[in-house]
Every structure is written in structure tokens, then in C-alpha cells.
Amino acid sequence: MVIILLADAKRFAGSRTFCADEVAAQPQALDAIGAAAVPLAGITAWQGLFDHGRLQSGQRVLIHGGAGGVGHFAVQFAKAEGAWVATTVSSSDIDFVTDLGADEVIDYKRENFEDVVEPVDLVFDLIGGETQQRSFSVVKPKGALISTLQEPDKARAKAVGIRVGRYTAQPNGGQLREIAQLIDQGKVKVVVASTFGLAQAAAAQAALKEQHIRGKVVLTVIKQPAASRFNDEERRLRAYQIWEDEGRPDGQDVAHWYRAGDAGATAQRADYRRYLRGTAPTGSLVIKFYHSGDQIRGYVRKLADTDTDDTIFPGEEMEPEAAFKLAASHNANSDEPVFIELVEGVEWNSAWGRLN
């Protein structure tokens, strides 16, 4: 069996062809579910720390979001390399990351990390937003601030004499083999929070974004029946029925639905448009905001065809500013609107812009 990194948009695709140098043998210490939790998160952590962050033994690193899927690997990889590791987490995760080997743990809800952490050689940012901005103050001269989310401020980096960068993980079989070796040596453990069947992919995504998940969530794949195909009219009616079943607003009938779904129906678009399931065309970007404790967090997805799953862009509980910037970086056509979905209880902040 091999473990595979899916670094492209079709994360839940039923099959894909890979080059030999993109895959590696499953670690002997793991079963199939544990192995499935490794590739994307593991490679993201590895490349952020070592390829982009250039972390070396004896150096100091601050990892924002050390209890998440990418973060819990990053803490362990850095320790295995011989680095000193600090990480920011919520109070419920302090014992967890301490057990992973973190040398200093900061409860981000009770302490400002910049007030307690001595300067570090590398900040590995999995949060973005204000957290990223505050991180400049704790990086040593000639150090680095590396993010999986928005691009850090290059002008500010130049002024304080540090390197910055944003990256997307790339397939690398050699790095997967190094990670597998660490796992088999007992230097890295894989934490699987829960598993879902492929048919429950939406529930898995909701759990990741709306619950506090420690470690990784894994989808178990079984043979799926062939998806039926719909023409555009059938798809619109099907989407409208879903919308209606979930509680459409009074007075918004199928004619309203059609007008809302017509591309270019509004001559002048606002900064953002409110998302209701089925109202946005395929390929649209949607930012969903939700509560994480007493904080507002978000993630970005790209709407797929009805027959396939949406693309979820990587991000560990992004602050609103980071989510907006990540959406902007993926919006190939700036004339197309970005849609906003608000979980019940989350109110739009006018400082974020206009919302129609």
C-alpha cells in the first residue's frame, strides 16, 4: 500500500494517476487510516519548516496552531530535528502539545505570545490575520516568517531584516519517506481525531470547521455508485429544492431563485454577496465564518459541480482578515464576487466591507 499526497483541487476524487516520485510506502507502524492522515498535513508541515523556513537543529521556532492537523506534525518534526519549539493553542490543548514535545505552550486566549516568547529564528504561521502581523515582533534579524495562508508584508519584512513567504505544499515522495521513517522510529505519532465515510464528507468538513478538532480527520473510501448527470435546468431545479427544504426566506420563489442565480444580473456588485446554497455558480469562492470558542474563524472553499465535492483550501482556523486575503489570492477573476456564509449566531462586521 502507498500513502498519497493530494495537492490539487480534487481532494475527494475517486482515482488519480501519480508519478512514482510522488508516493511512498505506508509506514509499518500505521494502519490504513493512520497512514491516510499523514501525506497532505505532513508534507505541508515539513516543507514549511525545512524547505521554506530552513529550520535547523538548535534553532528556535514558534508554531501558531500547534494542535491542528498540520500543527501537530510541525511540533514533532521540529523537535525531531533538534529545534526548540513554542506553540500557541487553546487551553484545552496545552497538555496535548506538551505531550508532543513542545518546550513552551502559550494559551492564545489568555496571553499575548509576543509578551512571553523570546525571539525565534522561525515563525510558522497556520492562523494568519492579526496573529501574523503580531509575529513580526518575535522574529530574530535574518529569521523567517512563513505562512500557509496570506503572504506576509514584504515591505515590513525588509524593514526589520527578515525573510517572509507563503507557500502551497507540493507532492514529494522523498519527504514522505523521511516522514514515514520518523513514524516507524517512534519519533512522530499520528493523531486521528475521527473518521467519516466518503458519503459523510460534508459532515467531516463541518466538524473540521465548526468543532475544535485535535489532530486529523480521515475519510474512509468505499466504492461509490456512478454519479448521475444533470443538465443545467435540472441542476438549478435540484439546487432550488435543496434550498427550499433547508428553509428559503418567505417570498423568494423559484423566479427569485433564477434571478439570483443569473450571472451578471446585478450591474454593480457589492464587495461581497451573501451565500445561500445553490445561488452561487460553479467555481465561486465562498468564505464561511463560524464560532471557535469566543472567536470568529473562517475558511475558504471553491464551489464544485453538483456531482463533485467542493475544494476546501488549507487553513487552520483562519482569522477573518486571513480568510479574506486567501480568497482574494485564489480569485482568478477580480470581477467575480466572493460569497459569504455565516453560521447561525455570527453577525457580519461592517469593518469587513459591504455584504449584499
Automatic annotation (TrEMBL):
Domain of life of the native organism: Bacteria
Gene3D superfamilies: Medium-chain alcohol dehydrogenases, catalytic domain (3.90.180.10), NAD(P)-binding Rossmann-like Domain (3.40.50.720)
Domain Enoyl reductase (ER): 4-219
Record keyword Oxidoreductase present: yes
Alphabetical UniProt keywords: Oxidoreductase
UniProt keyword DNA damage present: no
InterPro entries: DUF2934, ER, NAD(P)-bd_dom_sf, Quin_OxRdtase/zeta-crystal_CS, YIM1/Zinc_Alcohol_DH_Fams
Protein name as it appears in the record: Enoyl reductase (ER) domain-containing protein
Organism: Rhizobium binae
